Amino acid sequence: MFNADELKKLFLSDLNNVESENQLSEFWKKFLSKQGAVQGLMANIKNVAKEEKKSYGQFVNDVKNWAQKLYEEKKAEIEKAALNARYDLETVDVTMPVDIQTPGNLHPLTTVKYEMINVFAGMGFEIFEGPEIEDDDHNFTRLNVLKDHPSRDMQDTFWLTEDLLLRTHTSPGQIRVMDAEKPPIKVLVPGKVFRSDSDATHSPMFSQMEGLVVDKHITLCDLQGMLDEFVKNMFSDAAKTRLRPSYFPFTEPSVEVDVSCFKCGGKGCSLCKGTGWIEVLGGGVVNNKVLENCGIDSTKYSGLAFGIGIERITMLKYGINHMGKMFENDIEFLKQFKA
Amino acid sequence: MKVLLSWLKDYVDIDVPLKTLEEKLFSTGFEVEGTDYLGEGIERIFVGEVTSIEKYEGTHLYICHVNCGKEGEDHLILTGADNVFKGAKVPAALVGAKLPGGFEISPRKMKDMVSYGMLCSGGELGLDPEWYPTAGVDGIMILDENAPVGEDIKTYLGLEDYVLDISVTANRPDCQSMLGIAREVAAFLGKELKMPDLSYTEDGTTDERIHVDVIDKDICPRYLGHYIYDINQVETPLWMKRRLIAVGHNAISIIVDITNYVLAEIGQPMHAFDLSTVAGRSIIVKRAADGEEIVTLDEKTRKLTRNNLLICDTEKGIALAGVMGGLNSEIKDDTKEVLFESAKFVKDNVRKTARGLGIQSDASARYEKGIDEYSVETGMARALNLVQTLGAAKVSSSHFDVTAGASREEREITVSAEQVNYVLGIEIPEEEMIRILKSLSFGVTCNDGTMTIKVPRFREDIETYQDIAEEVIREYGYDKVVPTFLSESFVTNGGLNAAQTKELEVKKYLCTLGYYEIQTIAMTDKTEFDKFLLSENDSRRTVIELLNPITENLGIMRTMMSPSMLRAIETNIKNGNDDVRFFELANVYIPKSLPLTEQPYEIKTLCLGSAGAKENFFTMKETLESFAADNDLTFSYQRGNEPYFHPGRCADVFCNGEKIGTFGQLRYEMIDKMEIAEGKKASTKIFLAEFNYDLLKKQFKTEIVYKPDSGFAKNSRDLSVAVNKNIACGDIIDAIRSADTLVSAVKVFDIFESEKIGLDKKSIAFNITFSSDEYNITDEKAENVMEKVLSVLTEKFDAKRR
């Protein structure tokens, strides 16, 4: 049995030798457990005078607290060391490469389609998708493409029967929307269209986006205002549009819309063939005959319409020079369009 | 439309630079797609006079001294040509000269002498043989003795001129001519239009035997004929030859050249029949009989149908109306009498005949764009004027005019300035509109805010105030349009609807799983069905066929997506990219009945495809399960039997009891037939899935329903059973699920086979969760349900608990 001073001395020297969790638990058993030496001091109380018993108890308690505190400190130290050792052991080479399932991405035509939709959605356009197999009435007649118009020719249109065909443009969507809804109408019709054509800039299948607005007093000025906003969002803040006369049976006046070259800013370069302008879409004021064909009173309402080639915009935006690339689906091509 | 600048200047004074002219044409709707300078590549070549010539002994050469006036009076030039003589005027290319094709002239040593230039042939100057009388001769192009010495050869030969290639929109057939373009130029330059001379005098003679009759006036609404005789086949004047050559015609003979000249100038196709070959001296315009034949000018026999309009005499066809003359009535060197034709044939009919028979002629190209009756009259008058002024024939008084009765008055429309401005959105003063319309040959009278507009007969495209608005803004300038933003319009709420948003999310989710979106052509090939081993009566062979496909392999509308997907995968493997994950969302086209009488079903179909060392049947299934989990759906699977899939690795996919798709591994014998390296075939495995997206999307949740925690305790048990090897795991899971309503989840955590349990057996371990919204699942309750589960499994699958 130790006296307190001897005990404290031994406690300190033993504590000093503790280096592992095992030693720490041995140490605890030796000194701090119920059978431990510190508790053992209490056994001496029977040798203490009655009037000193209380102060002796206090004394042992102080020793206990002193020992407990030193033990806790040691314990924290040991645990920290163990943790540090584990961290050292588990240290990895953060530059090691890993194997992942590389994400795919959307087809560039889809990406551009939704970019375009976003721009017009912000202007209040809804999206309508019509059938790809259309009839003569929707694809031609009610769009004021009369029976002897060249675009009906076998050379351009894929026919399925005398009446049914693969739609040659998204414009029949205009008719379907106007049949179903009354003004105000603001709608986009994106989709696949088909023409009997195949070369560097043509594919028998391609995609268009039709836009139609019908409301009170829609004018040519509104068409340009709207398309200015579109090209600013699609190409650059500095982009401007230029209108020039064109011809479509379903609009009058009809315009071809050029955008100021976003590569050279209009100074003239290879992209714009030195003109400073790039042709991007066609449009115009909706021909009253088309409104009347859909039961809309052209003395009360007017409209504007435009049609954008999604491939054309995509090719311009990314500098793709061959239409065929779009439908070849070479992964080396596709993976470049991660957004 | 090719326009020769100097020719255009016959009708309008052009006092602006060429560039300005091009810009003005462009801004009024006539894009100049190209401008060719006739003297392109010719520099420092002058009219020279050979002052002396002697043979260079010991060579084939001649030593010439050439006087080029102000460009130097004595140039020593050697030439090998034999047709040069003293005093001859010749094109002399001096040192520093350039010839078309980029050839440059420098001093050149020839034997012991140096030649300081070159005398040129017509060919070396890049000339058409008819451009100059001696342009086609073998040797140096000897010039007229009056050619001014020292003059630039380009000036002398009329090469300081430009050909503009102008694109004309389909609504403006009246501008398919020099005169039509001149009208537009005169309007925007504010100049007067000088009409070509249309005057001629008939000499009073008639030939009563000649008859002209039109049977089918619906496709020939106007037919003019005029008899000319005593044909004198004079040489076509040089100016006319050059103009024809410059705009793409050949110079042939005076009568033919005049018809081509009128086509280019007025825009009216003309035809000349050698009347001596016309039986009965009668012209009858009528539809051909089915099977009737005619030999056209190009010496080809054409088999006709009722849809072809034929010009006939009393015995036979002599021309395909508006397309090409017949060989039998062709103008020959000894032709003495001619009937001129100037007619309107309906454009649709000409186009169909030309396309149907595969003939493209200058006349058909013009007719296809549309001819007005004013042009029919003007063309004939101009042809007669030229015949007379050039002394090519006598103009008789025998002429014919057969008409369907269309009015020859100018149409009147009434339009207000307010209507025009309403369309345009800007305020253009009425006086300005009137000025513009008058400049474009419209007659305008004003009365109390409305304009009464007389539409010129050649403007068949003008009908309404919208058309007038376009005419006004074309001239007023599109640059004066002020961009506005629907200032008076309702605000509408735009954007994708729920289904459209979902579709984009579906695509994006598949991307995150490693799939690239592809896009393939919707048309395909019937032979794909054989490649995909579909049985003869497979419903997917019921297809919509195109009447006029580009090629046979784009001949039908697809009824399944997998063939296009497989082609995309094949392309990539061929390119060395063996690891691919692709998807496509597009339509297949299913006819409601055949022959097609109504629009077919267009079924949106989701197709997945994968290939590569890391892919197998279950990686594809992982994709489907992830997709289902992402959409909070439960898919179940049954063995499928698609003919193109591995019979042991093919599954049908169900959602809420409805079959929504199929997936599996492509058959090895199909891989064998693919166009990929032989060495790769053994190791290539391809996995495809095809889903009916229209059915799938009905399963998508339309709203999120939150369910508060019931607060009742769940419980779970593990169950390990041995069953026969061929029992499908999914069937056992389904049986456990439906054994009791308290079963809320079933997971498989171990499967193994061993001799211990028997070689025909497998052991499967399940973790089964029980829950209820109404009470706690006590251990006792759990055990009760387990009893039930086990008895179901024993009964259904002869399962033994392990």
Detailed description of the structure:
Chain A has two domains: 4-90; 108-337, Bira Bifunctional Protein, Domain 2 (BirA Bifunctional Protein, domain 2), CATH 3.30.930.10. Chain A is 39% helix and 19% strand. Chain A contains twelve helices and nine strands. Chain A has helices spanning 4-17, 21-31, 37-40, 53-90, 108-121, 136-139, 172-180, 220-234, 288-293, 310-318, 325-328, 331-334; strands at 126-127, 133-135, 164-166, 185-194, 205-215, 241-248, 251-260, 277-286, 302-309. In chain A, the strands form two sheets. In chain A, strands 1-4-5-9-8-7-6 form a seven-stranded mixed β-sheet, with helices on both faces. Chain A has a two-stranded antiparallel sheet with strand order 2-3. The two termini of chain A are 79 Å apart. Chain B has 802 residues and is of the alpha+beta class. Chain B folds into six domains: 2-38 and 162-189, 2-Layer Sandwich (Phenylalanyl-tRNA Synthetase, Chain B, domain 1), CATH 3.30.56.10; 43-156, Nucleic acid-binding proteins (OB fold (Dihydrolipoamide Acetyltransferase, E2P)); 211-403, Phenylalanyl-tRNA Synthetase, Chain B, domain 3, CATH 3.50.40; 411-480, Phenylalanyl-tRNA Synthetase, Chain B, domain 1; 498-699, Bira Bifunctional Protein, Domain 2 (BirA Bifunctional Protein, domain 2, 2-Layer Sandwich); 715-801, 2-Layer Sandwich (Alpha-Beta Plaits), CATH 3.30.70. In chain B, strands 26-29-30-34-33-32-31 form a seven-stranded mixed β-sheet, with helices on both faces. The radius of gyration of chain B is 42 Å and the shape is elongated. The termini of chain B are far apart. The mean pLDDT of chain B is 94. At the A-B interface, helix 5, strand 1, strand 2, strand 4 and strand 5 of A face helix 7, helix 10, helix 12, helix 13 and strand 26 of B.
